[in-house]
Every structure is written in structure tokens, then in C-alpha cells.
Amino acid sequence: MRSRKLSFSIFRYNPSDPDSQPRLQEFELDETPSMTLFTVLSRIREEDPSLQFDFVCRSAVCGSCGMLVNGKPRLACRTKTAELPRKTNLLPLPFFRLVGDLSVDTGTWFRELGKRVRSWVHTDKFFDRTALEERMFNSQARAIYELDRCIECGCCLGACATAQMRSDFLGAAGLARVARFCIDPRDQRSEREIFEVLGTDEGVFGCIGLLACQDFCPKNLPLETQISYLRRVLARGSLTKAPDVRESPTRSASL
Ligand code: SF4
Ligand code: F3S
Ligand code: FES
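Above: the input record for the complex with iron/sulfur cluster. Below: its predicted structure, written as C-alpha cells.
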């Protein structure tokens, strides 16, 4: 079977170069078996070393290769050209600071997010490193694990219209981070402290239920379920560390 001639229209702009103007540049290459967008961009960069894009793991682990592929946020390393039409448009993820071309700075945003939602276990218990590990219910451990699978790729924020209108929005990734501590039995935060982090338009009230976050999360995190769970926590004003998995904000675990 003859291979397809693929055509890519790629956003080019270097914000640190005063002479650079935003534009789309066309590239063509022949499709090869099992080709991914990582292969495509690497080949193009052999021809044009100035092309900027990010890859580290090439296996959907590091979260660095999120971009808009024909308008949809996707991980480029996990996108096979066989799933794409002959002509493909590649743009950087919106919402994040543009570094250049397809490269955006998700790292700074996620570091700041960690500080904003105080992303650590809050406890005033003395840490005794000689003591046995504290026990928790399997259902709680599974629910926490499920939320910790976020790879901070930013696809949920790139997909969310609220995030494009509100640069201070925590986004589904931020809301999921808070949910992770809400179900953690070691975390002693009160309902009031949770409300301070979430009870604003930057938090859960800014979410208008568009659910694109859920549709485009490449790790299939149960974002919709978590956002509903946080709404219930705020509405009830009570935070139950329920061992029952029915109360936990997760669907079934997926790796
Ligand atoms: Fe990426 Fe999903 Fe985490 Fe959002 S929640 S940053 S889409 S892995
Ligand atoms: Fe945005 Fe997801 Fe809410 S797409 S508006 S965070 S449901
Ligand atoms: Fe790491 Fe794509 S290169 S997620």
C-alpha cells in the first residue's frame, strides 16, 4: 500500500524575538507505519532546527507534549498519524505562557497551583519515623491513587472555555488536586479551609460544567465525578472521609 503524503500546518512564533510574527508554516512528509506526532516533529526539526516543541518520555508519563491537534488538546507522543486526516493543524496549548512555536510553560503554572491549593497533607501530628505506617481503607488508597495519576499535561485547561476567560481559574487539574486531599484520611483540613481554597469563581464556582476537561484528559481522570464531589462538599459544608468507595470521587481505576 502506498504511504500517504501528510501535510502539517504548524504555528510558528518566538515571543523572545522582536522580529518574529505569529504565522502558520506548512511542512510535508511521507507517512511511515506506526508514525506518531513525535516522529513527525522530530523529522521536521531535522530539516528546521529552529522548531520548538517539548518531549521527554514519549510514553504519556511526563505530560510535556500537550498541544492542539486539529483544535483538540492531545499528547503528541500518543497521537498516531493513522488517526489523523491528511492535513493536520498543530497549535500550542492555550492558557499557558508561550515559550515558542508549540512549546508552552506548564511547569511554572503547576508549581504555582501547588502553592495555591496547598498541595500537601495538612496535619499537626508529630511525625515519628520509627512508627508503623498508618493504615487506610483500600477504597481510600485506590481513590487517592486514581487522582495522583495526573501528569500535569494541561490538556484539561487547554480544553476548558472558562480557563480561556479566567487566567486565575484552578481548572479541572486544580480541582482534582484538592479532591485528592479531601479524601485523604491523614489530611486534617477543616471544611472552612477547603472553602477558602475552592469557594470562589477561581475555584469550583468558576466551573460551568462544560466537561471538555473530562473529554480530553489523556489519563482518563474522573474529573466530572470529582468536581461534582467538591460541589457536594461545599453545599453540605461537611467533609466526610468516607471509607465507602461509593462516597469517593472516582470511577474505576485505569492505568
Ligand atoms: Fe492532564 Fe488530566 Fe491532569 Fe488535566 S487532569 S493535567 S488533562 S492528566
Ligand atoms: Fe471547564 Fe471542565 Fe468545568 S471543561 S467549565 S473545568 S467541567
Ligand atoms: Fe512525555 Fe508525551 S513526551 S507525555
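Notes for the reader.
The chain has two domains: 5-105, 117-247.
The longest strand covers residues 5-12.
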